[in-house]
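Section 5.1 Outputs to date
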Amino acid sequence: MKVLVFHIGADRYGLPLALVRRVLPLMELKALPLAPDAVAGLMNLHGASVPVIDLCRISGGAPAAQQVDTRILLVDYHTPEGALHALGLLAEKVQGVQEVDTAALNPSGVAAAPFLGAVAGDAAGIVQLVRLEELLPPSLRALLFRPEDQPS
């Protein structure tokens, strides 16, 4: 399976490439007053407002460093109710695409963060998969994707 590899803090993570619609350069985001820390802001994507989640913040760390290799990963987020929404993920040190042998994936054995999935080792260390469908807690989904915002 091909995964897009990036960092959350010092650790490497991967998102299955099939879930990534586009990799965008870091851009100016509109701040959302009173939004939870994990919400980096809104980006303007061809006239549409798309919420952006800071992967470092949602995992309990400091805000993502705004460096040359920090990117916004545009993904299609499927809610448990079946709705589809565009979502941006602010990711540090985006390294590119890497092949991960699905047979080599092992459960992480850690339940602290439900959005973190299986792990695989390679010459550079461990890559842990992000489970996109588990990334947003219900309260944050309700804030970002109100029913009246759903496409018709």
